[in-house]
UniProtKB/TrEMBL annotation:
Record's catalysed reaction(s): a quinone + NADH + 5 H(+)(in) = a quinol + NAD(+) + 4 H(+)(out)
Binding positions ([2Fe-2S] cluster): C104, C109, C146, C150
Name assigned to this protein: NAD(P)H-dependent oxidoreductase subunit E
Pfam families noted in UniProt: 2Fe-2S_thioredx
InterPro entries the record matches: NuoE-like, NuoE_dom, NuoE_N, Thioredoxin-like_sf
GO cellular component, one term: organelle membrane
The organism of origin for this protein: Teichococcus coralli
Cofactor list: [2Fe-2S] cluster
PANTHER family: NADH DEHYDROGENASE [UBIQUINONE] FLAVOPROTEIN 2, MITOCHONDRIAL (PTHR10371:SF3), NADH DEHYDROGENASE UBIQUINONE FLAVOPROTEIN 2, MITOCHONDRIAL (PTHR10371)
Length: 221
């Protein structure tokens, strides 16, 4: 069975249990909320589920049995967890490829060339279009609405990492690197520091400027 078939025919697991890494995260998350208000942690716990599935199976998604586990843990009716998981597009309720390519197609990115980013994803990732998973199971392609990085449009999110200021060539280069098992540093493909002008900042020069660490703790350049 090919990797794609694995993804497309992946069945709902019979059961789900949080692993030790997830349990450690959940302990910290639940401390943010007062007793009796645990339901407020539903989004972070669904995110913990999705991350664990990615670690365990290579496909970051949220099976229904895991939603039931979240409901039990947070003393919620299962339907309330289903409502949240199916409302937010950040949660994948079906199996996906190892890398989730999310092309922002909202106006600023579209005006700045998101059609070329899409074309590059299709060409380099061997993808037919939005909603498709590549034959080798490496990529799933989705269109998303504004990712909040318009100043560096067009933006392609790969899982949680933002790749910005892309064009056809730089997107192909990124996808080829992912295929080789590399993970290029997120951020501007044209070397901009955050959203500063190309060539460096032109104002507030007396304030030291450092690129923030990304979600995985890596420093930008
Ligand atoms: S429109 Fe693409 S990040 Fe805002």
């Amino acid at each position: 069975m090919s990797a794609q078939q694995d993804v497309k025919h992946h069945e709902e697991p019979a059961s789900f249990a949080f692993d030790a890494e997830s349990e450690a995260q959940i302990e910290k998350i639940l401390k943010r909320y007062p007793a009796g208000k645990e339901a407020s942690a539903v989004i972070p716990l669904l995110y913990v589920v999705q991350k664990q599935m990615g670690r365990a199976t290579g496909s970051a998604w949220v099976p229904r049995v895991a939603m039931d586990v979240v409901a039990t843990r947070l003393h919620m009716a299962p339907i309330r967890v289903y409502e949240v998981a199916t409302f937010y597009f950040m949660f994948n309720t079906k199996p996906i490829g190892r890398f989730h390519l999310q092309v922002c197609g909202t106006t600023p990115c579209w005006l700045r060339g998101s059609d070329e980013v899409l074309r590059a994803c299709k060409d380099a990732g061997a993808l037919k279009g939005y909603g498709d998973t590549s034959e080798d199971g490496i990529f799933t392609l989705s269109e998303v609405e504004c990712l909040g990085g318009c100043v560096n449009a067009p933006v392609l999110a790969v899982d949680d990492d933002y790749y910005e200021d892309l064009d056809y060539e730089s997107t192909v280069k990124l996808i080829e690197a992912l295929k080789r098992g590399e993970r290029p540093t997120p951020g501007s493909a044209r070397g901009r520091l955050c959203s500063a002008p190309e060539g460096g900042p032109e104002v507030l020069l007396d304030i030291p400027l450092k690129a923030p660490a990304d979600a995985a703790g890596r420093k930008g350049e």
